[in-house]
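A further point concerns the way the authors explain their paired sequence and structure data. The central task, working out the structure tokens from the amino acid sequence alone, is never made concrete. I therefore recommend that a typical entry be quoted early in the introduction. An entry of this sort, consisting of the sequence and the corresponding backbone structure tokens, reads as follows:
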Amino acid sequence: MNEPRDGVGPATDIQVAVLDVYPPPLRTLILEKLPPGWRCSFAEGYDDRHQHAVLADADVAFANWFGVNRQALEAAGRLRLIHKLGAGVDKIDQTACRDRGVRLARCAGGNAVPVAEHTIMLMLAALRRLPEVVARTRGGEWFKEEARVLQRQLAGRQVGLVGLGAIGQAVARRLAGFEVDTVYYDPVRLAAEHEAELSVTYRALEDLLRTSDIVSLHLPLTPATRGLLDAERIDRLKPGSVVVNCARGGLIDEQALVGALLSGRVLAAGLDTFGQEPPVGNPLLALPNTVVTAHVAGATFDNFGHMVDRAVRNTRAFLCGEDIPGPDFVL
């Protein structure tokens, strides 16, 4: 079981540090969901001064996009728990957390629905070359016949999902009505009955990359997955395929992807994440055959409230010495 902080219960004087810079509606939502007796400080910026200020007296920190490094943890003398308002914890220094006795939790699969919706939107937008079509239409062009050459449809294609955790499975369920052949690769293969329920077929990674019309990435960023879609694998993609990434930018060799998009070997890409964020100066932003968004796949107002509710429940459990549910407890 998680060890409670001495003298602290769920209804006592708890200080929460919110490390991301949220607009007023999201701040109000967080405050409304905190239990009585909990106080909250919001970061006003992402520089060390602002982050260290909100962490100085915090018992608990809520983090989302912002990464938590060793220096931030050293500024937090009372901190006992960091809760990610999302699933990925690659931006949080877990070694430093262990060294300082700070526990770490997350909302495993908590953003699966909005990310799955965004993933399919990027598939469709990339196939339809939506940014180019919108720009030309706004510019006064009416090019319906040319569009027949430019655009592609999703129906009838093979979609390869690389990673079939909560998000990958949510994507698979939503693809079922699009008349596609959905295949997947995951380090842990699903049971046959689960594959049948999701209407997916397992493929070895190299086979999936070679045969899929659309390759969509849904793996966490770890030392084993960093650069998974490297130059060699990009070169082995099916000619005219589409790459979609709503997971982590570090999964892709971006320079190699740029080359494949320029040559036409890769038809288009839908990208919500980048190796460096914000991706200032990244050539992927300027290509006509990319659809790019600002790591917003999981960022819906509807889902944010659910994530805060879950983080509060887990934090209350931790403060009472109870177990945080297994998938959400990281360390």
Observations:
- The chain has two domains: 14-106+301-319, 112-292.
